[in-house]
TrEMBL record:
GO terms for molecular function: monoatomic cation transmembrane transporter activity. The lineage of its organism: Bacteria, Bacillati, Bacillota, Tissierellia, Tissierellales. PANTHER family: KTR SYSTEM POTASSIUM UPTAKE PROTEIN C, POTASSIUM CHANNEL PROTEIN 2-RELATED-RELATED. It comes from the Bacteria. This is TrkA protein. Residues 2-122 form the RCK N-terminal domain. Residues 136-219 form the RCK C-terminal domain. GO terms for biological process: potassium ion transport. It comes from Aedoeadaptatus coxii. Gene3D superfamilies: NAD(P)-binding Rossmann-like Domain, Regulator of K+ conductance, C-terminal domain. It holds the Pfam family TrkA_N.
Length: 222
């Protein structure tokens, strides 16, 4: 059974999150002050409402206590983001995730009660730098300061072998969470899947351990 989400701010991040959550069979309420954005997303979410969240009465009418998670994707107005965060905290929303363009902005929202702060511009910069500087890396997602999820293209010495045989976990202390093949993603019975040329392996681990795999298997930096 899906969860219920409210997404404040239907810009690039907010619209992407809202549509994806809805496509994954969750209930999604999208809120934005811009009526054109609401019209654009209305068919891709459960409900879309044009509203000025600086109006306390509007926030009260949204029934925030009924949502499992709030995503505050308002990057242009700190005042609006603050109002949305405070209202969600007061309504005891179990998970409040807020977007912030700067660390200072994020620190304010965190102090007010947001459970998680995301920095789209910073995170994208890290992912881009990783992908440009490391051969064989298709993509990188920073989970915390020292841990990440990384996608490596299968090297020649991995082809024809299984994940179990390569023993990434025991040798490098990392977990294989999926194998990307063509347009699909293999997530079940990964250990005994025979790797093919063109596959990519998605690992989770510390930055230090992920670099050890890179070094061991000749995926050298430029």
């Amino acid at each position: 059974m899906g969860k219920s989400f409210i997404v404040f701010g239907i810009g690039r991040l907010g619209s992407t999150v809202a549509k994806k959550l809805y496509a994954m069979h969750n209930d999604v309420l999208a809120v934005d002050v811009n009526i054109e954005k609401i019209k654009t997303i209305s068919e891709d979410v459960t409900t879309a409402i044009q509203a000025d969240i600086m109006d306390a009465d509007v926030l009260e009418d949204l029934g925030l206590s009924n949502f499992d998670c709030a995503v505050i994707a308002i990057g242009s107005s700190l005042e609006s983001a603050i109002m949305a965060t405070i209202s969600c905290v007061e309504a005891d929303v179990p998970m409040i995730i807020a977007k912030a363009p700067t660390r200072r902005y994020g620190a304010i929202l965190k102090r007010l009660g947001a459970h998680k702060i995301i920095y789209p511009e910073v995170d994208m910069g890290v992912r881009l730098a990783k992908s440009l500087s490391d051969n064989g890396i298709s993509d990188y997602f920073e989970i915390s300061e020292n841990y990440g999820v990384i996608e490596y293209e299968v090297t020649e010495d991995w082809v024809g072998k299984t994940v179990r045989l390569l023993a990434f976990r025991s040798h490098f202390h990392v977990n294989v969470i999926a194998i990307r093949r063509d347009e699909g993603l293999i997530v079940h019975n990964i250990a005994d899947e025979i790797l093919q040329k063109g596959d990519a392996i998605i690992f989770f681990g510390s930055d230090e351990d992920l670099k050890e795999i890179q070094k061991e298997h000749g995926i050298e930096k430029n």
